[in-house]
Amino acid sequence: MKALPLSRLSVRQRLTTTVALATTLGLVVVGVTMYVVESRRIDRSVSVALTSELGEMRAFQKSGRDPDTLKPFASPDLLVTSFLERNLPDQNEILFGFPSTGKPQFVGDAPSSLQTSDAFRTTVGRDRVAGGTSTVIVAGNEYRVAVLPITDGKVTAAFVVVHDVTLTLAPLRDLMVTYAVLAALAVLIIAALASWLAGRLLSPVRRLRDTAQGITDGDLSRRIEVTGQDDLADLQRTFNDMLDRLESAFTAQRQMLDDAGHELRTPLTVLRGQLEVLDPDDPDDVIATRNLLLDEVDRMTRLVGDLLMLAKARRPDFVSPKPTDIETLTHGILNRAKSLGHRTWLLDGVARGHHDLDEQRITQAMLQLAENAARHTEQGIEIGIGSRIADGQLELWVRDTGPGVDPQLRHEVFERFARGQRSDEGFGLGLSIVRAIVEAHGGAILLDDTSTGATFRMRIPTGVTW
Predict the structure, then answer these.
(1) 283-312 and 430-440 helices cross at what angle (nearest 10)?
(2) Cα separation of 191 and 343, whole Å?
(3) Using N-to-C axis directions, what is the helix angle for 359-375 and 326-337, rounded to 10°?
(4) pTM of the full structure
(5) CATH code of the domain made up of 322-461
(6) Does 134 score more than 80 pLDDT?
């Protein structure tokens, strides 16, 4: 489908074109309205002038006497001639007297084209009996012709008033030409101002476009200089915030891929090495190699599963909160944790009530913390699990009395692939998964500052309670 020409214009050109068209339309409407109103006013003034001349003629006819001799007029022809001698036409008017016989007389500036016009004579001849007003076009000019019959019962003369409408409208037409020229200049000036203003207003959008075009897969560091306090400035800030999030996400993604590649390289190297030295004729070597390879495959499967879970943590359906009994949840976590190792498992406290939680995800996070505690402690060491409501938040924690967390790792212990002292166990993704689960609930995971052991505490807003 062929695109419309307007769709190929820039936003600035569209705005300028729209303003120019709207201005032109407005000026045209004003001009047409002004012309129509003024034309009607002139038309009414012409009709009034014609009526006034005919009224003066009727009054003169009614007097019936010659003002000089005070004698009655001998004929209609003399009456018309006497009236013409005593009256001057208004501007753009011509007064004609058509006698019953002979050539017509006139007062005023009558063009020869009108005097010799057959259309004019035909109109007068048609109306000299009953009278009337007609419009005649002669040599391109419009004339309004009013005919008044003058009769004494025997002969009939005609008094004719002719108004040149074209000449009367000439000043209006000149005014409209001037108006059109000035309107055209106004449109050009307004279009230029609109183009300049649109350019100023859209300059942040152009900077945004240039920044977006300058961004590459390897460089998300470019930012837009925010100017102003309007909606476009808000758009610039939003775009910069989006770039911050993208840069952070891409950095985390690259780091995760690098770390995952590093973690997978070791078991793959083990697999290849064992297969290269495998003696297929030695059953014991085959069985031992098989068991070792299965262990490595299980490790890689667990790593891939953890990475997939962290990837799902950004999805809105990662957690499905529903009303959960916190007391039952806490006891269930403790009962499950007891199977993680021979430790002294204690219940530190229990919160009561129902809160919106994803019970399975919270249980998963707490068991991960309990597993970490069991892995880094010896048999018989005390490990406590508890829950409470504090400062409008639900707290769930796992504490132990083991060696605690290395102070150098406190600030990065929740990062992906971060490991403690026993780096030979796990991939360092457990606490990252815990943090993802807690943050999906709108909460935070904390490592308490304790003198003995380690205490990991989850804080989750209580929200609506039942």
Answers:
(1) 30
(2) 82
(3) 40
(4) 0.52
(5) 3.30.565.10
(6) yes
Indicate the helix (H) or strand (E) that contains 151: strand 141-151
Class of domain 10-172: alpha beta
- Count other C-beta atoms under 10 Å from residue 47's C-beta: 14
Return the domain boundaries, the chain. Answer: 10-172, 231-312, 322-461
Of residues 168, 113, 128, 125, the one with CA closest to residue 144: 168
Alpha carbons 116 and 84: distance in angstroms, whole number: 20
Alpha-carbon span 209 to 203, nearest angstrom: 10
Residues listed for the chain: 466
The 93-98 sheet, strands edge to edge: 105-107, 93-98, 156-164, 141-151, 132-138
Measured over the CA atoms of residue 301, residue 307, residue 311 and residue 317, the dihedral's sign is positive
- Asked whether 330 and 361 are in contact (CB, 8 A), the reply is no
From the centroid of its chain, how far is CA 458?
Answer: 42
- Is the predicted pLDDT of residue 135 greater than 50, yes or no? yes
Please state, rounded to an integer, the average pLDDT across all residues of the chain. Answer: 83
Helix (H) or strand (E) holding 211: helix 165-214
Confidence at 304, pLDDT banded by 50, 70, 90: confident
What 3-state DSSP class applies to 377? coil
| Count of CB atoms situated within 10 Å of the CB of 343 | 21
> How far is 265 from 255, CA to CA, in rounded Å?
15
The two three-digit tokens of residue 206, written as one number: 């152009």
Write the DSSP symbol of residue 101.
Answer: S
Enter the CATH code of domain 231-312.
1.10.287.130
Check: CB of residue 362 under 8 Å from CB of residue 336: no
Among residues 3, 6, 4, 24, the alpha carbon closest in space to that of 15 is found at 6
Return the SS3 of 71.
coil
What is the rounded average pLDDT of the residues 412-430? 57
Identity of the residue numbered 354: H
